[in-house]
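Can anyone check this?
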Amino acid sequence: MKYGRQFGVVASAVVVATVLAACGGASSPSGPVDGSWDEVVAAAEQEGKVTIYSTQAAPRLAELERQFEKAYPEIDLEVVRGVDADLLSKIDAESRSGKGIGDVAVITDVSWMQANADTDVAVPLVGPALDAPDYHRDTSIVDDRFFLEGAVLLGFGWNTNALPGGLKSPQELLNPELKGKVGIVSPSTSPTYLDFYAHVEKYYGDDFVEKLAAQNPRIYPSNQPLGQALASGEVSAAMMVDPMMQAKSAGAPVEWTAGEHVWGAKWYGLALGTAPHPNAAQVLADFMVTPAGQAATSPGYASVLPGIEGSLADAQTVPDQNLEVTTGDGAQRYRTDLESTLR
């Protein structure tokens, strides 16, 4: 992966495609019209629609939809939320067939980004917000095509009705009274979760996961349904949940801590090479790193811009993934070991 290669906002440097060709299901990579940013926006408004595939939290994506359509009322934003494994499978299938449905994607799987660094799965990015000084394009965009959108922070949560005293440390998840009442995320869903498990073993002991498995934990496909289970009381405590600010503000009996050692995963966005709405894809990607876009997606998470209300950290400072456990044979061995332990 090559960080720091700058791609200037020069429309002629990208793959050129007309709106008509893009909407016609062309099999070649699609890009914005050849012209100024105003012309890209005009073409996007003519396309009238954009679809995002994202692993971000549903409430944040709903707010993104609201704010984007407020800024661009001529463009309808359709949100498809899922976990990395499912969304990347869709993206790969669309890339192979050349018949795209999604226009923009936001993922956390750095290993997939590496594997697709030299493919046509994503196109170069244009847009004024991507070049704004506060965004730091030289360190926020990877391989000219993957843009840092934010970062999720995962930690340890509890239901305040079940555990009014809270959790003082992750080791308290091993309390015998919590047997069968702890929720965790499946390590098979995303390499991002493998990274979290490695983080936990590094800081809380090589045998921590084995001891956690003895608690008969409930296993969920991602941190979103895990957070919902915690709020409903289905589980009393959880490992790998986000701060749940929306649920908490709505009155859910939940609390959260990052623990002594903070862990996060960066979200990267891309404009898809088979986007049926290539201009709208660029407009959405650009909007996501504006103050309005970040105000929609960053509360409770890490932002790529300073001064975003509700943001918990600077996404640029979140450590990169531990590729030894998230890529290649190492990832497969680690996933297999974890699944065997947690079974």
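Reply from J.R.: I decoded it. The first helix runs from residue 19 to 23.
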